[in-house]
């Protein structure tokens, strides 16, 4: 009897997984493609007229939230009281999957610029929209060009405009927190801007780097208290990196 119930339960799960697979490819993904095009077009129109204004961020914010809703992914956020919308920050986050972008874009209550790899510039419409929105493309294969991109990013960080960087440089392959590159920390120390670590938990379980299969569930985004970088000047950059890594890791492993 127990075996029959167990087999029945497994069969039901198989049916649910198959139905969600069909839904994902036949309904969710086509809708996401359409709203992505619409969002890019609206951003292209609004960004030059309203640079660094909330109205220019609404399309991408709601695009992220709709994408999560279509994939049955819920985002929980805490720690918003730790940040001041009028203050510029260097936000750093662990990078588990594509849903990290949705979580940050959709729920981080700040005007910010992404520091993103230059390959994304080639995506039709999306690349143009990101460029007009003021996001910074960085060519990691070219150290000189990368340094110029960082200088360009620094010029934008004022009057409450922040930057969001994934210091690992790429998505994790196994869900674990990787080593941090120093670019984000140099920007923060050059401009004496607070660093705000963000822990994203549950994103890897929703979709890993090695698959396109989405698993519905919950993502948690924890905004930690800002770190005053002045305490680590002029030559304690490694200590700042270590503290930031440990801060993100402390919530990731709970």
CATH architecture: 3-Layer(aba) Sandwich
At the first level of CATH, what is the class? Alpha Beta
Uncertain stretches? none
The spatial strand order of the largest sheet comes to: 1-7-6-2-5-3-4
Helix content: 40-55%
Work out the count of structural domains: 1
Shape: globular
Rg, rounded, reads: 20 Å
User: Please, what is the average pLDDT?
Assistant: 91
CATH H-level superfamily: Glycerol-3-phosphate (1)-acyltransferase
Summarize the structure.
The chain is an alpha/beta fold and 254 residues long. The chain has helices spanning 2-46, 54-70, 99-107, 126-132, 143-156, 183-191, 203-206, 237-252; strands at 73-78, 90-93, 112-117, 136-138, 162-165, 195-201, 217-223. It has one domain (72-252): Glycerol-3-phosphate (1)-acyltransferase.
Describe the structure.
The chain is an alpha/beta fold. It has a single domain, classed as 3-Layer(aba) Sandwich (Glycerol-3-phosphate (1)-acyltransferase), CATH 3.40.1130.10. It is 48% helix and 15% strand. A 7-stranded mixed β-sheet has the order 1-7-6-2-5-3-4, with helices on both faces. Helix 4 (126-132) links the parallel strand 3 (112-117) and strand 4. Helix 1 (2-46) packs antiparallel against helix 2 and helix 1 packs across helix 4. The longest helix is centred in the first third of the chain and has 45 residues, at 2-46. It is globular.
């Amino acid at each position: 009897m127990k075996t029959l119930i167990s087999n029945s339960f497994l069969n039901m799960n198989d049916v649910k997984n198959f139905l969600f697979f069909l839904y994902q490819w036949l309904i969710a993904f086509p809708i996401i493609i359409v709203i992505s095009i619409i969002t890019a077009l609206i951003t292209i129109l609004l960004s030059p007229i309203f640079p660094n204004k909330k109205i220019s961020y609404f399309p991408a914010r709601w695009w992220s939230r709709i994408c999560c809703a279509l994939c049955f992914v819920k985002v929980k956020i805490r720690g918003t009281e730790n940040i001041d919308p009028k203050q510029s920050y260097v936000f750093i986050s662990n990078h588990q999957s594509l849903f990290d972008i949705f979580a940050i874009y959709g729920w981080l209550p700040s005007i910010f610029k992404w520091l993103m790899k230059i390959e994304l510039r080639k995506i039709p419409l999306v690349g143009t929209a990101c460029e007009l929105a003021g996001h910074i493309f960085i060519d990691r294969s070219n150290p000189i060009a990368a340094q110029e991109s960082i200088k360009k990013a620094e010029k934008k960080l004022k009057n409450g405009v922040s930057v969001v960087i994934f210091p690992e440089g790429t998505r994790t392959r196994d869900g674990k927190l990787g080593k941090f590159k120093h670019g984000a920390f140099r920007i923060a120390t050059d401009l004496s801007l607070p660093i705000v670590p963000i822990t994203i938990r549950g994103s890897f379980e929703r979709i890993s780097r090695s698959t396109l299969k989405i698993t519905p569930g919950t993502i948690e985004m924890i905004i930690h208290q800002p770190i005053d970088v002045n305490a680590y000047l002029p030559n304690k950059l490694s200590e700042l990196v270590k503290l930031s890594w440990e801060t993100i890791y402390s919530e990731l492993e709970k």
